[in-house]
Amino acid sequence: MTMLPSKARVLHRLLQFRSTCFGSPSCGKAASSRLVLGIETSCDETGAAVLDETGEILGESLHSQKVVHLRTGGVIPMVAQQLHRENIERVVQEALERSNVDPSQLSAVATTVKPGLALSLGIGLKFSQKFVRQHNKPFIPIHHMEAHALTVRMLQPVAFPFLVLLVSGGHSLLAVARGVDDFLLLGRTLDEAPGDTLDKVARRLSLIKHPQCSTLSGGQAIELLAKDGDRTRFRFTTPMGQTYDCCFSFAGLRNQVTMAIMKKEAEEGIEQGTLLSCVNDIAAATQHTVATHLAKRTHRAILFCKANGLLPSSSPTLVLSGGVASNQYIRKALSIITEATGLQLLCPPAKFCTDNGVMIAWNGVERLREGKGILPPSVDVCYEPKAPLGVDMTAEVKAAAIRLQSIRMKIPN
Q: Is residue 70 within 8 Å of 64, Cβ to Cβ?
């Protein structure tokens, strides 16, 4: 990839671009209409959407690769890349057509450039840079997790600062959102993300062979079967019980579950790949332990924020977002914590929790309003498969060593 030019060259180009574009009649219409095209290709969803400055979705399109990856047992980066390559032009064109917007009317194009699968990010970035250069439009590089965190502000007025828990198949983090591009990172996953854990457990249980789960993702299958399961039949240990910070770990839990599955397979005299009779109970116990772990770390984050004045004293808010936030059991677990600590829990609707072009466009709108991170089309941008969010405060949280009072996690299915 071409490296970013020097700051001086970028500044010169930006000033030159603003004087030539925003001052010209052809760009005046686009600037006044304030329309943003958002493009998302960070993993296995090809998404595009056009939003106006109020957050109204004028048009959107989404191509999901879920069915393909279900057959292969997980996301294969080269397969995801090829599917993005085959669909991105159509998806963007559909979003524009459904919004009745011509590229000349756009104020900017916002695209996910970090973090995510390198091969997937590359497709979205390459397409976007060609598009903005062809139509002479400003480019807004987007941090995928920032977009998830800010989605709720598109749906209702949520003032900064607020606490956000972002949980998905690839990420898990706790942060204080203090502004559109101002975050304090309180905790992150040390190994794998909760969505990844649920997917791997589902694959180990061969849930794709279950008649109710053949078309569901791993996380969806776990949630469905858990409704009829008895979580008390398997007592999995909640991770990191003696580590008093806000970071997450799910690999150890997955190992516990794998050992329990192997034991039951031996007891029932079946081979791996055959459905266990107790599959609902294992699903329920796994889901409960994931939910409890997320809830406890979030509880500590709330106490840390209160002790350090990081949240407003009146109507403090926890935002829960990301693909795993669609899980209703996990939402209920978090609601127990927010009720006990006096916070308001806000969750975007499930369709906005998973990856989509709408959230990227909205992040672009927020940045456009504040004039932050807006680049002229000629600037080369690199994608970043790994990219932390905000200022890392995890060491300070660990040093505080906040111990939790017990809160009973009685969560109805």
A: no
**Close Cβ partners of 410 (under 8 Å, ≥ 6 residues apart):** 336
Mapped onto helix, strand or coil, the DSSP state of residue 71 is helix
For residue 119, give the 3-state DSSP assignment.
helix
Whether pTM > 0.90 for this model: the answer is no
**Segment (H or E) for 60:** strand 57-64
Does a cis peptide bond (omega within 30 degrees of 0) precede residue 412? no
pLDDT tens by residue, 48-101: 999 999 999 999 999 999 888 888 778 899 999 999 999 999 999 999 999 999
% of the chain exceeding 70 in pLDDT: 92
User: What are phi and psi for residue 242, nearest 5 degrees?
Assistant: -105, 15
Identify the H or E element spanning 39: strand 36-40
- The full DSSP string for 134-190 is HHT--EEEEEHHHHHHHHHHHHS--PSPEEEEEE-SS-EEEEEEEETTEEEEEEEBS
Handedness of CA 198, 204, 205, 207 (dihedral sign): positive
